Amino acid sequence: MTINYSSTNLKTIAGGELRAKYSANGQRILRYSIDFRHKVLDLHKEVSAAELFMLQSKVDALMSDWDKRYAEHLRKSALLAGKDAADQATIDAGLKIDALSTILAHTLRVDDRVNWESLKDFSEWKQTKWFTENKPDRMRYDEPVFQPPRIGFFQGLFGRKKIILADAYEAFERTHAEWKAKDIADQESVDRRLIEWGDRKRVFERQQAQLKQDFIDNQAFANAKVDALSKAVPAGDQQAVIEHASLVLDNSDYGDLFEQSFSIDYLTADKTLMVEYELPSPDNMPRLKAVRFIQATGEMKETCITEKEQKANFDSACYQICLRTIHELLEADEFGNIERVLFNGFSTYVDRSTGKDVRACIMSVLVGRGEFMAIDLSRVDPKSCFKSLKGVSASTLSALAPIPPVMQMDRNDRRFVEGRATVDAVSNETNLASMSWEDFEHLVRELFEKEFASRGGEVRVTQASNDGGVDAIAFDPDPISGGKIVIQAKRYTRTVGVSAVRDLYGTVLNEGASKGLLVTTADYGPDAHKFASGKPITLISGANLLHLLAKHGIQAKIDLREARKDLNLREFN
């Protein structure tokens, strides 16, 4: 006797055994019953009937009812999940827009001075375990032992005993000789493999010792560079002041609002620090206000802030970035190297009249230390403060009206610094994503020097710019494909976004270059590839970089996860 039950969701239903209730004399079945439980809806039902066909009908009806209930449950769950997702998206959008209003306030709660010790590497050498290969060992075979054969009564009676014993002993001697030969051969094989194993082990140990020493030497060299920089900054060394300022701004955390990009120069004569800052593009400013889930269609409907609000947010963000940047540089200057700060804010945008990308300075201010430090930034209106400092800009920054900077950064060959050899220190154990950004820039310069060497090209590295502006410039004499080539090196551990490619394109136009190369240790997002398409820009990913290095006999590796850990970067999903 069986009862069949079918459901569109059988995995959610557990059925018991068919039971029968008999009459007192046990001759007749009075009733059949079976239990069912719905594991998701948490329902239990005992179905019973006097006849099997009636029981089957009731079970079918129950399954149909539970299927309808489960479908409704799934529908409500989906609606709830959609509503929750919409609510969360609305919260996230609100937080992002709110963050725009706290750009300046955020830095007032932070100590912007550089912690030199935090820049050093105090990690310990991690010894690679020796061999998964086990030490060779010989197989042990039991030595044969002579076992006298059993001799029957009649064999002994007829004088066969001696013959049988002689044959048995002769067979034993052959077996023992074979065992002895195998044992000797096995020992010789083990001895030979032990020698080879020992040789491999000694080579491995020498390699590990060399790798450990290289690690210690590189670590000591890097830490010594930090010490040297920390000592050069108080002395007012021009390059040291620039690198120190780059570290300060690099440590400024804007979350995921936008990517920082800037160039820095320093005039020792009047202690003026000059900053050329790439402001966020108006097109990339947060616009999403709320997300609503439409139950009827299952779609998410987005609501954006008004165009007026977008423009107001852009203006506010830019003024705050300007004041925040100046504040961070002056607060971190413990040794009085900076008496004035020049801030030139540039924006790259699409000219709607020509459809071309345009890069223009839209705000500029030159302020003295004493005047700025006397301001209580926690209580100012950013725009009013900027204007009171005699800052120059259009009435609204969102108009993207170009203005002549208060003071121009010198873009002559004075940008170039002497190249430094880094290739010799690179090995197959070198993680390019963990290199200092300065070493990475010099490595890229050396790589392209080798690449352009065959046609007499030259590659020059520019002074520290924290991956902003120009990291190197190549001069390729090839009459067809050559010219001035702008190179940017991005030692990133995350996907490079479109803003970096847009910045490079703006730099190519500004420099009058024929081409731009963007080199990174990571990869590029789809928007970055889309923007670069059809433009004189070549995107070189981490994999491409390793291939180019190998082409010139340079072996290295890129491990982004290891680099994020080494550089103490935050992980985002």
Number of strands: 17
Helix/strand class? alpha+beta
Determine the mean pLDDT.
Answer: 83
Shape: flat
Order of helices and strands: EEEEHHHHHEEEEHEEHHEEHEEEHEHEHH
Largest sheet: 6 strands, mixed
Low-confidence stretches: 569-573
Radius of gyration: 39 Å
Helix content: 40-55%
Number of helices: 13
- Cα distance, first to last residue? 56 Å
Indicate the proportion of strand residues.
15-25%
* Quaternary status: single chain
Spatial order of the strands forming the largest sheet: 12-13-14-15-16-17
Tell me about this structure.
By secondary structure, the protein is an alpha+beta fold. Helices cover 42% and strands 18% of the residues. It has 13 helices and 17 strands. It has helices at residues 52-100, 103-108, 153-157, 161-232, 238-250, 307-332, 369-373, 382-388, 437-453, 498-511, 526-532, 542-551, 560-566, and strands at residues 13-15, 19-22, 29-38, 43-49, 262-267, 272-278, 288-294, 299-304, 340-350, 357-368, 392-393, 416-417, 458-462, 472-476, 483-490, 515-520, 537-540. The strands form 4 sheets. It has a 6-stranded mixed beta sheet with strand order 12-13-14-15-16-17, with helices on both faces. A 5-stranded mixed beta sheet has the order 5-6-9-10-11. Strand 3 (29-38) and strand 4 (43-49) form a beta hairpin. Helix 6 (307-332) packs across helix 8 (382-388) and helix 10 (498-511) packs parallel to helix 11. The protein is flat, with a radius of gyration of 39 Å.
